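User: Okay, second chain of the day. Same drill as before: sequence in, structure tokens out.
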Amino acid sequence: MVSAYILIQTEVGRASHVTRELGGIQGISTVDPVTGPYDVIARGEAADLDELARSIVMPIQSVEGVTRTLTCPVLQL
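Assistant: Same drill. Structure tokens below.
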């Protein structure tokens, strides 16, 4: 199982809309609006990195108002 934080930049004024839309994507466990260089941070889980990209990151990138994402896989140290 792979977990990752996905840092999301949105168009101005679209963070609330994006936060609501992300709640409907299967595999995303939390979605929080934040301040700073990113507007929303989501945490997702998938079987492997390919599945994470296909089932979570790509759907996030297709949400209206999302302009950029940065995916940070969680390490198992």
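The domain at 2-73 is CATH 3.30.70.920 (Alpha-Beta Plaits).

User: Thanks, on to the next one.
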